[in-house]
Amino acid sequence: MNSNNIRQFILALAASAALYACSGNESEATLPILGHRDVVEQEVNGKMVADTVYQQIPDFSFTDQDSQQVTAKTFEGKIYVTDFFFTTCPTICPKMKSQMLRVYEQYKDNPQVVLLSHTIDPKHDTVAVLKEYAERLNVSSDKWHFVTGEKDSIYSIAQKYMVTAMEDEQEAGGFVHSGAFILVDQNRHIRGVYDGTQPDQVDKLLKDIPVLLNEQHQKK
Amino acid sequence: MVAGAAVLTTLTQCFTNKQNEGERLYAQHCANCHMDDGSGLRNLIPPLAKADYLVSHRDDLACIIQHGQQGEIVVNGVTYNHVMPGAEHLNKGQITNILNYIQTNFGNSNERFTIQEVEKQLDKCRHLLE
Fold it and tell me: By the number of CB atoms within 10 A of the CB, which of A191, A199, A213, B5 ranks highest?
């Protein structure tokens, strides 16, 4: 079973997340915005002003276990945690799901927090398969969307979330993917990346969610 | 004196390594799905902790590990229906160690396996390897 690639990738992600975490000011208790950023010059009232533009998750459209369309609009005004998996994954996925269940249990009564799991094996993981999977996890569909869709759209949005996902016959189960959980704010900016197979990283996620909720709250 | 202590440490390590082979193999090949504490995953992956299946299907366990398991099975009154892949590269010694690890951990205190018993079980499903 070759999960080295996965491990390495997670390590790289964790390291970059750690770097970002260090550069932030701890005492202010805000989360950094991760990903690419561009500085653009804009004309405001006749003056050129430099502005930082943060990478944003683009619009998307997938189908969840209830055959409902899930788009960026579904998450409007909410924050969400997302990951990539497949139902027949012989390696890290069940651990990721058991860790995601911790997030689910903690926020199941808070409509501000939603979970989104993308299958990277849409050929096998049809709506019906995802439905059975979600039912066996005993989770509700408006809280935790398991989505499928066009393979290319799924793989390309994975990159936007800074997650590796691709087919690879050499890998156990036929896919390479990372076990990352991505925390996304209501402006679709990435605010945290966690290794979803590691309980202590998920502890950190569970601590970061209230920080982000608080920030959204204050902005209102 | 120092050398003696070093030899002793190495020896104890050797011994524990051997003893822990079952635990190590479990972590490597099974814990992803059945979890570190053998609890499984809700109604998707059955538990090994206090699983009646380990006793009622004792004679099938070696083959399940080697060749996997699919279709409906009932563990502690809950019906599961998912796919467990086989671990065809594991040899009978390794399978014995894994089985003894699960039979005596996670709150289980089931009878241990001998390598002869495992070998006999594997004979029944050897044709699946061809």
Answer: A191
The CATH fold of domain B2-129 = Cytochrome Bc1 Complex; Chain D, domain 2 (1.10.760)
Q: Is residue A172 part of a domain?
A: yes
Name the residue among A92, A93, A136 with its Cβ closest to that of B42: A136
Cα of B7 to nearest chain A Cα, Å: 33
Mutate to test the interface with B, among A89, A99, A133, A136 (most CBs of B within 10 A): A136
Q: Tell me if A9 sits within 8 A of A164, measured CB to CB.
A: yes
**Any A CB within 8 A of B70 CB:** no
Task: Give the pair of three-digit tokens for residue A147.
Answer: 């989505």
Look up the ipTM and state it: 0.81
Q: Which of B112, B78, B109, B82 is nearest to B97 (CA)?
A: B112
In angstroms, rounded to a whole number, what is the distance separating the alpha carbons of residues B37 and B59? 23
- Residue among A4, A65, A98, A101 with most chain B CBs within 10 A, to mutate: A98
Distance (Å, whole) CA A197 – CA A177: 12
| Half-sphere exposure (Cβ direction) of A61: Cα atoms closer than 13 Å | 1
Q: Are A162 and A193 in contact (CB under 8 A)?
A: yes
Task: Please state the rounded mean pLDDT for residues A89-106.
Answer: 94
Q: Global pTM?
A: 0.85
